[in-house]
Design a protein that fits this description.
This protein is an all-alpha fold. Helix content is 63%, strand content 0%. The chain has 1 helix and no strands. Keywords: Membrane, Transmembrane, Transmembrane helix. It holds the Pfam family COX4_pro_2. This is Aa3-type cytochrome c oxidase subunit IV.
Length: 51
């Protein structure tokens, strides 16, 4: 079982440093946006070349 003794500090909501997670999420969104844009561009190019 989990130890809920007095040695552990109480968690205060909103006190955790989330700057690393925010940078990672921003990078993921940026990469996803670029990937989607490139995919759409390739599809448009393929449609124009094939016609």
């Amino acid at each position: 079982m989990a130890d809920h003794g007095k040695d552990h500090a109480e968690h205060v909501h909103g006190s955790m440093d989330t700057s690393v997670q925010e940078k990672t999420f921003a990078g993921f969104i940026r990469l996803s946006t670029w990937g989607a844009g490139i995919s759409i561009g390739v599809l448009i190019f393929m449609a124009l070349v094939n016609s």
